[in-house]
Design a protein that fits this description.
Elements lengths: L8 E5 L6 H12 L1 E5 L18 H6 L2 E2 L12 H17 L3 E5 L3 H8 L12 H14 L1 H9 L3 H6 L5 H14 L3 H10 L6 E8 L2 H18 L1 H10 L14 H8 L5 H23 L6 E5 L5 H12 L3
Parallel strand pairs: 1-4, 1-5, 2-3, 2-4, 5-6
Helix pairs in contact: 3-4, 5-6, 5-8, 6-8, 10-13, 11-12, 12-13
């Protein structure tokens, strides 16, 4: 990246609990920037503790976007994120400021930067989807996957017969548009990127140190009232089965509140699931070409990180 033009946007990514929020704020202060969250759970209102959402003091330190933009019962989509976050980034650029895309949801970040167009995917018909879902229930996943393979063998080969949602969606899109998801994705990849982005990926040199930091964060969330937050959402009528409540921290807390496991067991399960998620995040972000990787050895040194970012991307 340091041999290319100065980036239009900076991405601060990495696994959970690596200091992305703090570095994003420091970069915003130094380079007249505004933060665009890229976290699939921080979009939901009243889900603050379990998502490690920026608090009032942090939001006062730098403008934040894409926090609290949806109700927890909404089924928030990647396409909606791309549309809304894209407007935020364009607005920041129009003000002569630097957009800082900060978060750990790799699919959201990649889709935003790649100018991924979900228009064809969002032209769905509820009646067709319901009919295809009923057909799936009637004939089974193997038969539906064979149907998909007849016109999109590439996508069919990537799906499991039990993946009902993706199989139904792939068939639905083809019937509505005449274009397969595989071809749509190919056309999307051929488009120039929406923004010239510089990537910063945070992690720890020692995986054990990362996991220990995750465990400490979970303990802090519980002390801050995670179980109370989840109980309040359920009391307000939010279904434990909705998408938002499947987030790590929330689904485990629900089990404890129902009396199915103890709170101590829930805490251990949150830590375990968070460590597994961090591993998947690392795998995703390793695909980022020309990224500046900042690997902490102990407590994050943000002054040193800022120095490295400035040198790597030629910021002034």
């Amino acid at each position: 990246m340091n041999t290319f033009e100065k980036p239009q946007v900076l991405v601060v990514a990495g696994p959970t609990a690596t200091g992305k929020t703090c570095l994003g704020i420091e970069l915003a202060r130094r380079y007249d920037g505004e933060i665009v969250s890229a976290d699939s759970m921080q979009v939901y209102r009243r889900m603050d503790i379990g998502t490690a959402k920026a608090d009032a003091e942090e939001r006062a330190a730098a403008p934040h976007h894409m926090l609290d933009v949806a109700e927890p019962w909404e089924d928030y989509s990647v396409s909606r994120y791309v549309e809304e976050a894209g407007r935020c980034c364009d607005g920041i650029l129009s003000r002569g400021r630097l957009p800082l895309i900060v978060g750990g949801t790799g699919l959201y970040i990649d889709s935003l930067l790649a100018r991924r167009d979900f228009a064809q995917r969002d032209t769905g018909s509820d009646s067709l989807r319901e009919a295809l879902s009923a057909e799936y229930d009637r004939v089974g996943g193997e038969a539906m996957l064979s149907q998909l393979a007849a016109f999109d063998p590439e996508r069919a080969a990537r799906l499991h017969p039990a993946d009902r949602r993706r199989i139904v969606r792939a068939i639905e899109i083809y019937r509505l548009t005449g274009v397969t998801i595989t071809e749509h994705d190919r056309q999307t990849r051929a488009k120039p990127p929406r923004y010239r982005a510089g990537w910063i990926v945070l992690s720890y040199r020692d995986r054990a140190a990362l996991y220990a930091r995750i465990d400490r964060r979970v303990d802090a969330m519980i002390r801050a009232g995670l179980f109370d937050e989840v109980e309040a959402l359920l009391t307000q009528g939010l279904s434990a089965d909705c998408t938002a409540m499947q987030a790590i921290g929330y689904k485990e807390a629900v089990l404890a509140l129902r009396g199915e496991i103890s709170r101590e067991a829930a805490a251990d399960l949150i830590k375990q699931n968070s460590r597994r998620y961090a591993k998947r995040q690392l795998t995703w972000f390793k695909r980022a070409s020309d990224a500046l990787w900042i690997l902490w050895d102990g407590e994050p040194d943000f002054d040193e990180a800022l120095r490295r970012v400035e040198q790597y991307f030629h910021l002034d």
